[in-house]
């Protein structure tokens, strides 16, 4: 699918629908959006995905949110977003990309490792501590965040 990836500044309802698919806390989303580089992907004028990059440590960008329209997942859009971000981060002279995801997020863990991310740590009880509502994924209660890193 041919995508147009551009910066967006002010999130609309449609952006929030995607953002909340990756991160169920609007409060957390709002805490990182205005400090991040925010990109949207459109296909034939329709919003199909978003990817949000937060500069954390020197030379490091964290992908804090990535989401694709549920109707068109598993068609390579997620990979296109990750490829775009790697290129953009290199152009901006960043040396490292990080991403955190649930220990129960098997499909996401597959995708990130396929793209060369390596697991570097566990943020134990991240989801138990930071989210009021219990999250069930793949029939498991989500408690821990796995941290992954890719050197550019
Ligand atoms: N187990 C293993 N692999 C799977 C599974 C599964 N259950 N489901 C899908 N896959 C594979 C697909 O086959 C595909 O691999 P392939 O290309 O080798 O066949 C791959 O996972 C998906 O690749 P894409 O099609 O490029 O990805 P997609 O466009 O579906 O986007 C994304 C991936 C963004 C994770 C999407 O599924 C999504 O929006 N999910 C909901 C939100 C979310 O979980 N976001 C990430 C949270 S973490 C964070 O935001 C920092």
Outline the fold blueprint:
Layout: E1 4-7, H1 13-22, H2 26-33, E2 37-43, E3 46-55, E4 60-68, H3 77-91, E5 96-102, H4 106-114, E6 118-123, H5 126-130, E7 136-137, E8 140-141, E9 145-151
Parallel strand pairs: 4-5
Antiparallel strand pairs: 1-2, 2-3, 3-4, 5-9, 6-9, 7-8
Acetyl coenzyme *A (ACO) binds at residues 21-22, 63-68, 73-79, 99-101, 105-108, 110-111.
Low-confidence stretches: none
Principal-axes shape call: globular
Number of helices: 5
Helix content range of the residues, please? 25-40%
How is the largest sheet built, in terms of strand order? 1-2-3-4-5-9-6
Listing every helix as H and every strand as E from the N terminus to the C terminus, the arrangement reads: EHHEEEHEHEHEEE
Biggest beta sheet summary = 7 strands, mixed
Structural overview:
The longest helix has 15 residues, at 77-91. The strands form two sheets. A seven-stranded mixed beta sheet has the order 1-2-3-4-5-9-6, sandwiched between helices. Strands 7-8 form a two-stranded antiparallel sheet. With 152 residues, it is of the alpha+beta class. Helices cover 31% and strands 36% of the residues. It starts with a strand and ends with a strand. Residues 21-22, 63-68, 73-79, 99-101, 105-108, 110-111 line the site of acetyl coenzyme *A. Acetyl coenzyme *A is lined by residues 21-22, 63-68, 73-79, 99-101, 105-108, 110-111.
């Amino acid at each position: 699918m041919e995508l147009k990836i551009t910066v967006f500044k002010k999130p609309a309802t449609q952006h929030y629908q995607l953002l909340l698919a990756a991160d169920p806390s609007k409060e957390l989303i709002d805490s990182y959006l205005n400090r991040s580089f925010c990109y949207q992907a459109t296909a034939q004028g329709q919003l199909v995905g978003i990817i949000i990059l937060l500069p954390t440590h020197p030379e490091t960008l964290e992908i804090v949110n990535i989401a694709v329209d549920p109707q068109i997942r598993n068609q390579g859009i997620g990979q296109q977003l990750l490829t775009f971000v790697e290129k953009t981060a290199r152009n901006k002279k960043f040396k490292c990309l990080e991403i955190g995801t649930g220990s129960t997020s098997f499909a996401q863990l597959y995708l990130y490792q396929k793209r060369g991310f390596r697991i570097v740590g566990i943020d134990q009880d991240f989801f138990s501590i930071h989210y009021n509502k219990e999250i069930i994924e793949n029939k498991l209660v989500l408690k821990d965040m796995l941290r992954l890193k890719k050197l550019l």
